[in-house]
Amino acid sequence: MKDMSIAAVCHGVQVPHSPYLNETRIARIEAARYEGDEIAGALAVVRAGDRVLEMGSGLGVVGAVAAFNRAPERVLSFEANPHLVPHIEALYAASGIEDRIAVRNRVVMAAPDAPATVTFHVHASFLGSSLIEPEARRSEPVEVETVTFDAVRAELDPTVILCDIEGGELDFLRHADLTGVRAVVMEFHPGAYGREGMRECKRILERAGFVRNDEVSTRLVWTCEKAE
User: N or C: which end of the chain has fewer CB within 10 A?
Assistant: First the structure.
């Protein structure tokens, strides 16, 4: 990345200019309203010494805010869109947090029969890019390698999960062993699996012992923790 000039600052995290930023998005980042519910949730639950798994980095802001402000032991982030990864890494470098957070261009899958690669559909604006093929909007299909959640657990042993994977959360929760995970911040996407699918996501979390934090949760973004 050659251009390291800073476009916005969010909770101390410096966000360099990139093709994915416009004036509206920059203003939202500056006001902590871009992914604001996820940021609020991450700041509420991540503690010093935590090991954080982030699935769906987006622009990299949410994981970086957690790494910069809460001093976790490690944040390991996964982003399926290969075009975003260099810009995410530039953000980490600009904020001086490369020793605490890293991003990989992989898709985390919990299902036991997960394929070695999956097709990810990249939209021009990056928002809405998904494993689900769009019916109308044009997108660029790219093949992305997968990694099993079991392998990630063996490497990271996560205590916190931050999850924004554009509809993939239902399949993940159906198969994931959340043993050892203390807190989850998750965005639901009922457009991908309906209201009943969203209710199933919430039931799975509740059955696993997670309790919603009403102060920083909404209908579509839950921050929840296990009772200690």
Answer: C
Superfamily holding 9-226: Vaccinia Virus protein VP39 (3.40.50.150)
Task: DSSP for the chain, please give it.
Answer: -----EEEEETTEEEE--TT--HHHHHHHHTT-TTHHHHHHHHHH--TT-EEEEE--TTSHHHHHHHHHH--SEEEEE-S-TTTHHHHHHHHHHHT-TTTEEEES-EEE-STT--SEEEEEE-TTSTT-BSSPPSSS--EEEEEEEEEHHHHHHHH--SEEEE--TTTHHHHHHH---TT--EEEEE--HHHHHHHHHHHHHHHHHHTTEEE-GGG--SSEEEEEE--
What pLDDT, on a 0 to 100 scale, did the predictor assign at position 1?
Answer: 41
CA-CA-CA-CA dihedral for 210, 80, 48, 32, to nearest 10 = -90
Across the chain, mean pLDDT equals 93
Among 136, 112, 113, which Cα is nearest to 123's? 136
Structural Rg of the chain based on CA atoms? 16
Cα dihedral sign for 198, 202, 208, 213? Answer: positive
The residue extents of the domains of the chain are 9-226
> Residue 126: pLDDT above 90?
no
Q: Would you state the pLDDT for residue 129? A: 66
**pTM for the structure as a whole:** 0.94
Span 76-99, pLDDT tens digits: 999 999 999 999 999 999 999 999
